[in-house]
Amino acid sequence: MKVKVISRSTDDFTRERSQDLHKVFRNYDPNLRTQEKAIEYTRALNAAKLEKIFARPLIGAMDGHIDAISCMAKNPNHLKGIFSGSMDGDIRLWDMATRRTTCRFNGHQGPVRGLTVSTDGNVLVSCGNDCSVKLWKVASTFESSDTVEDDEPLANYVWKYAFRAVDHQWESNIFATGGAQVDIWDHNRSNPVNSFEWGTATIVSLRFNPGEPNVLATSASDRSITLYDLRMSSPARKVIMKTKTNAICWNPMEPMNFTAANEDCNCYSYDARKLDEAKCVHQDHVSAVMDIDYSPTGREFVTGSYDRTVRIFRYNGGHSREIYHTKRMQRVFCVKYSCDGTYVISGSDDTNLRLWKANASEQLGVLLPRERKKQEYLDAVKNRYKHLPDVKRIIRHRHLPKPIYKAAGLRRTMVEAERRKDERRRAHSAPGSTSVQPFRKRRIIQEIE
């Protein structure tokens, strides 16, 4: 007679310490668990609901300014440092960990319109309506215990007109300012080393390309977006849109692409090599988009709007992934991603900077390995079943303030009415007399080279 005995090593199932978990061996054969998909669907549904329950995006507000915040800049040297400038000429360095002011720079006699920091993080450049550009020394150590006031800049350049924007070139002493024209400055010279102009419009915003430092993109009050090459004596290319662009930001991971925040409530992503058509149109705001900033990963960007909301978009998504708002937050003039992409900072008309989580339901602090694995599993399950109606509805739902909800409905009605009007015009016209223009080209008037 044969006797079959199950034999196994005690090392496979014995715990090394009493605190360890019992080892469980699973057979993942789908034929043994016919209800596995139903169980996963229920888990995805519960995970989507729990994500909404634990969504607490607002971390806190940083108050101290006495006028509207007009611009911000990140400090490359310090992860928790952020500069802000207000309409009363006050410039502050904030510690985001304690949400307190660590340093103040007093010197401008009017609104501060632009802030930027050198690549090494040691020099802060500011410009404003008082026709001056100032260079400030930034402390090498980040002290947050006492507030330090600095009234003496390293350099003060007074020019002929007011400035509206400034940006620093990567790994050099060159920075650019925008006003009546584009001026290129050097830290060691009191006059611009070069100047560019194309028309008589006022420059509203400008940004250096992170991959090709000699390429500069600007937007002007004549509804144009212009590309400059510092190695040439003239501008390179220009595209004219139907409405003005308030801000521009390059994608740090795809330096040939940039996104423009427009007055018509939309953002337009362009390829710098082909400006006659937008790559993607990002829509959801109900008022002018005032500022934009990309995440360090290049996969998402954040926008601040005149409709008192902050939205987060995917770089290739037509609609926003997240919307942030509070009862007290007013018109948002500037937004920034933190240097690690974990937080979003917004500056608004109510004199406050607000610190938000980039992922509304993300847990703050250190996660245990088991907690991290469970969160990754829940995210994977939600992503697998996100196309199903119930999960999709829960994931997409966002609570909106009543004025924004009504404005969004009115905007949808206007867009739908315009679409029907175009269809009827084509239906009652001779064949071939009217052309259908793609949505990504409708706001572009012409491209000039």
Automatic annotation (TrEMBL):
Name the predominant localization. Answer: nucleus
Is the keyword Repeat assigned to this protein? yes
What subcellular compartments does it reside in?
A: Nucleus, Nucleolus
Q: Where are the WD repeats?
A: 62-104, 105-140, 282-323, 325-366
Q: Where is this region: Disordered?
A: 417-439
Database matches in InterPro entries: Sof1 (IPR007287), WD40/YVTN_repeat-like_dom_sf (IPR015943), WD40_PAC1 (IPR020472), WD40_repeat_CS (IPR019775), WD40_repeat_dom_sf (IPR036322), WD40_rpt (IPR001680), WD_repeat_DCAF13/WDSOF1 (IPR051733)
Q: Does the keyword Repeat apply?
A: yes
Annotated Gene Ontology cellular components are: Cul4-RING E3 ubiquitin ligase complex; small-subunit processome
Q: In this protein, which residues make up the domain named Sof1-like protein?
A: 358-444
Q: Which domain of life is it from?
A: Eukaryota
Q: Which family does the record claim for this protein?
A: Belongs to the WD repeat DCAF13/WDSOF1 family.
Q: Which UniProt keywords apply?
A: Nucleus, Repeat, Ribonucleoprotein, WD repeat
| GO BP of this protein | maturation of SSU-rRNA from tricistronic rRNA transcript (SSU-rRNA, 5.8S rRNA, LSU-rRNA)
Q: What taxonomic lineage is listed for the species of origin? A: Eukaryota, Viridiplantae, Streptophyta, Embryophyta, Tracheophyta
Q: Extract the SMART domains matched here.
A: WD40
Q: What name appears for this protein in its UniProt entry?
A: DDB1- and CUL4-associated factor 13
